[in-house]
Each structure stands twice: as structure tokens, then as C-alpha cells.
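User: Permease for cytosine/purines uracil thiamine allantoin, Thermobaculum terrenum:
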Amino acid sequence: MSAKTHHPEVDRPWAIELRGIEPIPDSERHGKPSELFWIWFPANIGVLGIVYGGILTAAGLNLWQSAVVALVGSALSFLLVGILSVAGKWGGAPMLTLSRAPFGVRGNLGPAFISWLSLVGWETVSVITAAYALLGLLGLLGLPANSLWTVVSLLVIALLVVMFGLLGHATLVIIQQAATWILGTLTVLVIIFLIPGTQWSKLLDAPWGAWDSGVLATLSIIMAGTGIGWANAGADYTRYLPRGSSDRSIVGWTVLGATIPLFVLIMTGVLLSSRVSDLASASNPVEVIGDALPAWMAVPYLITAIGGLIAAADLSIYSSGLNLLALGVRLQRHKAVLIDGVIMVLGSVYVMIIAQDFFGPFISFLQLLADGLAAWVGVFLVDMLLRRGYDPEGLRWTDPGSPYYYSGGIHWPACIAWLCGVLVGLAFTVSPWFSGPLAKGVFASSSLGYIMGLLVSMLTYWLLGAVLARGQVAAGQRERPGES
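Assistant: Predicted structure for Permease for cytosine/purines uracil thiamine allantoin:
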């Protein structure tokens, strides 16, 4: 980030951000779209990307198919994030506050709760995984992996995550930029030592995999596990951008910042899976990947793993705090972050100390929430096309005077479309918690249910919005800000 960037008093680096979910006035807008590259790059440096590479080869894809799926899946999923991020510039508000426009101030509570639950859950997973990695690092120093050091590791990671979330937007941009250079360099070093053991003949001689149960299924898994999981946070990091910022630049820097690390890590996983056959199914991928490295590389590798997880968790806790406010909790933003931090720590202690066998089912539950998020994405995308602008003052109001109050605070076309998308998504989804009646064949081993839900919610809202709700949408319509 340029040293010449002007920061208003409400959003200064290394000071607690004072703005909450209220729209940012023009006088306080600052920054440029290229900052989004730094936001999303380190958030996508993580061991999960390498595991996705193992999933591609386990599904029978050859090297060339894997490369296409890795690139298209990463870019397409974050294209959705980039497009939704443009709404942040239009309205100057966080993602789930802008969501009041299509859903209504009360109708938005359902999607906002699902979004908040997902963000808090995934930040907890990131903190737990990072704490285990730190515990492994301490083990290299001769410290025992007992309850005491487990708690110490957890508290150290949680403290860093909560601190960055408390400070807020301007500090996160700086932290993520530094993390990009540091973690990017360490990641390249790790990859250099992972690649030499690749069994190239095994990869190059592999036959072409099936296009339905292989390519299409894994493409949906990559999309669901990467960009779609961040779609509910995109506008949180663009709401300070000046109105004249280019929409194309917002989308482009978002896609570029996320796709580069994801593609590199996924392809590293593809190469690694040629000699580590259980990469995709490993219960502890951090350990499995570490075992493939020289012993002396353990320290830089674990530091990279920890840093990448923190870089994702700090964005999650920042956005979850904004989500909590969008649910109607009347607190200052930093206090909402503290509440989420307490929940995160308690959940982590429960999983790491009390019920260690709960980690897998907990992740499965969070993955099930993706049906709700994907259906929400579909509605919001169509609404952006119909609306093309927001009433900043109207986003702040939650009483009948708001242009987004609609009928009793609910915009029924959007809510109906969302519920239809959720139900269809669940019908095609399989998880340890739930198996949909239509989740058979290719749907039983993929994330296509999320995609189905997204498409159904888009189509349903488009039809209902065009036929029944044009008048209501027009009530909140504002002229789209110009491109620069």
C-alpha cells in the first residue's frame, strides 16, 4: 500500500477502526483497488490448497485436466467475489448490510445469521489448525504436546487474530501486504523442496479422467471450498474505496490476488500426490505435507502454514464482527469482534481439549452451511443487476421509514428465491449431518449441490424480481457510480 494513501481518522493503521456497518461517506473514502490483491493473496496461502491438488488426482484427473480445473475453479469462484465486491464501492457498506437491500431489513436476518455462523466457524477451524501447527513447531524445540502447551499455542494464535480484527481495515491491508511477501517467499521455498520428488512419469502417463464425475465434480469442490466461502465478505474490503474506483479493477485485483496462490498450491498438491497417495484423505494434512520435506525444512514450513491460517482467520473475524452488527446487535465494531473472539476461543478449547473427535463433524456442519451462502450469492448477484446502486441512508434504517423495509421488513421475492435455492442445494448435498434425496451419482461425491442452489436462486429471483418486484426494487434504486 502506498505511503501516500490518505487515511481518515476513523480508519488509520494501527488504531482501532471507528466505523461499523454504517455506509462510508465520500469524505472518508480512500485507497485503491490494487489493495485487494494484498488482501486476498495471503488469505489463500494455506495447506488446504495443496490438499485440493490431491483431491484432483484422487478423482482420476490427469495433469492437464488438473491444471484446467485448478485455474478455472479458482478464477471463477473469485470472479463471484470480485463482482460482489463492487457492491461495497457502490453502497459504502459491508456485505451483509448491503444485503438488506434485496432481502429487506428483517428478511436479511436469515442470510446474515448463516453468514455469521459460517465465518465464526471457519475462523475457529483456522485457529485450531494453526494452533496444532504451532504445537508441532514447539515440539521441534523439545516442548511436550500436553494440555498446557496446547492452550498456550491456542491463545497465542487467537490473540494475534483478534488483535488484527480489532484494529480493522487499514491495519489489515498493511498486515496482509506484509504477509504476501513473507509467506509468498516461504511458500516458494517450500515448493522448491516438494517438487524434486515428483514422479513425472506417473503424472504424464495418467489417462484422461471422466468429465462428469471427475472434472465437473472437482471443479465444483474447488469453487465451493475457495471463492464461494468468501463471497459473503467481499464488500467488507471495498467499502472505503472512492466512488470513482474502476469496477473492472476491483474485480481484476480480487481475482488475481486469490487465483495466483491457489493455482500454484493446487498444482503443487497435484505433483505431491504422485508420491503421497493419501494426501487427499489425510486427517492431518499439515503433518503429511511436512513429512514430504527434508527435516531441516520443518521450521520454515510450519511458519508458512501458521502464517497462512492467521491471514485467513484475521479476515474472517473482521467480517464476522461486521456480520454480527448486521444482525442488529447494537455494539461498537471492535466489541463485536471481541465477542466473536471469545466464541472462537471457547470453540477451539472445546475441540482441542474436551472433544477432539468433534473436529471432523464440525467441519462437515460448516460445509453444509455453504448451501445457504451459495443461494444467497445467487440472489445478491441478480439484485445487483436489477438495482445497480444503493441508498446509503436507507441501509442504516431498520424501521418502516427505510426504503428497504418492503412488506413488514421482508422482501418476499428475494427470501422465497433464497429458500428455494437452499432447499434445492440441500436436496443434492451429501454430508455426515444430512443426505439429500437427490444426492446420487455425481452429486454424491461433489459440491454440485451448492452450484445447483446458486443457479436456482438466481433464476427464481430473476423471474420474481422481473414480474412481481420491479416497483419495490426501484424504490431503493440509485444511479450507478461512474467508472474511472
